[in-house]
Amino acid sequence: MKQLKSLLLVALLVVAGQLSAQFEPIPMNPKIRYGKLDNGLTYYIQYNKNPKQRAEFHIAQKVGAILEEDNQNGLAHFLEHMAFNGTKNFPDKGIINYFETLGIKFGVDINAYTSLDKTVYRLSNIPTTRTNIVDSALLVLHDWSGFITLNNDEIDKERGVIMEEWRTRNTAWRRMWKKSQALKFPNSQYAKRDVIGDTAIIQHFSYKALKDYYKKWYHPDLQAVIVVGDIDVDRVEKKIKEMFSDIPKSKRFGIRPVHTVEDNKEPIFSLVIDPEASQTTIKFQYKKKQLPKELKLSQVGFVMDNIHGLISLMLGERFQEIALKPEAPFVGGYGFYSDLVKEKDAFTFAIVPKEGKEKEALKALLYQGEKMTRYGFTNAELERAKTNLLSQYEKIYNERESQKNQNLAEEYIRNFLDNEEIAGAEYEYNLIKAVLPKLSLAKVNDVAKNYITDENV
């Protein structure tokens, strides 16, 4: 908690007295039509014409494999598959068949993904030349929200499909990730779930187990509809209100448990070996308390995100400079600050050794960590990083009128699922120009020196 307070103090020193309303939420891009229905469903709609006469239709869910019971291990992902095997208004393969007549390919523009804490379905690159196509795409999102059929025969057919996917995903990286999760997060749900699930459960689960998961977690207050493209925003908003209002407010409204990972005083050591692994990675992760949502979506959150970004750029430059030398014991290294699980962030610090140089690479990583903690960075390093970061924002600003529909839709999904601000390129560019000159070397180094700790490693 003391470290979090000190990091926040750095951000507050940057914005206090310099930028107005630092505790107020960063405003949402005014081009977005944003709203919520009485049943809790959130929606984001934006007119955009790249590409012309096309649009993105997504539905994001704040649920994933982490919410499964033990007898449902793998069923969040299984349910995602079943969404394409029949819904109230599109029986059997109706969704796939209809959109493929319009040239929209399943697996390319008709797709979905499930992770531990989220599930997202999408219809991409949908023609908008006829209103009935737009209405059909919205109707699919409506059905995915609460009207997936879950026919018993279709469930049994899908078991083999999932088993084949399990076999193709059974790579060295996947096996090592699963073992590492179990070791890193003792006594946590994150140690028990890996999305693809348990093959015994996939082959033999009861129909009720899948339907129970669906009924329990797919409800509108945990869902957002995102539509971006060459569309009539007023008409789309009206149709969303008409279509989705028939979904009743859930009895579990507002209930979504957040699973934790334990703090630890002593370091947790995870050694994972696989004979098919193509490379070795040595990695440290230092768990951190997340910013509260209201701060993350404020100017304080913006400042902290960009301080983390600057530090990552400077570490990357240090590792790259060393890796170019023939005698370097590693091929690459990196450090970055990001979310670890839903309620914890982490500073990740890693290196990829050359074969047979693991000990030397570990020493190099520890040295770079100690160097950052003791001495921080130089002013020359910070100024280069500021220039690079500003150029990234400037590029996005200059290309703001040609942003692709899918990229915008994905931003709004992250706002809903991960509390990422969506002020728009113009606001962000103006804000970063105001913030960067106020970020002194001392303030940035204060943040960097708090990354590496003795606890929560």
Q: Any idea of the CATH topology of the largest domain?
A: Cytochrome Bc1 Complex, Chain A, domain 1
- How widely separated are the two ends? 15 Å
What's the alpha carbon Rg, rounded to whole Å? 24 Å
Count, helices = 16
Mean pLDDT, nearest integer?
94
Domains, number: 2
Tell me what portion of residues adopts beta-strand conformation: 15-25%
Shape: globular
Q: Which terms summarize this structure?
A:
Cytochrome Bc1 Complex, Chain A, domain 1; six-stranded mixed sheet; globular; 457 residues; three-stranded antiparallel sheet; 15% strand; alpha+beta; 2 domains
Structural summary, described in words:
With 457 residues, the protein is of the alpha+beta class. The protein folds into 2 domains: 2-26 and 279-448, Metalloenzyme, LuxS/M16 peptidase-like (Cytochrome Bc1 Complex, Chain A, domain 1), CATH 3.30.830; 33-244, Metalloenzyme, LuxS/M16 peptidase-like (Cytochrome Bc1 Complex, Chain A, domain 1, 2-Layer Sandwich), CATH 3.30.830.10. The chain has 16 helices and 9 strands. It has helices spanning 2-15, 75-82, 94-100, 131-146, 152-169, 172-184, 199-204, 207-217, 233-244, 293-296, 299-323, 358-375, 379-398, 405-418, 425-435, 441-448; strands at 33-36, 42-47, 54-61, 110-114, 119-127, 223-229, 282-289, 330-341, 344-353. β1 and β2 (42-47) form a beta hairpin. α1 (2-15) runs antiparallel to α16 (441-448), α2 packs across α8 and α11 crosses α13. The two termini are 15 Å apart.
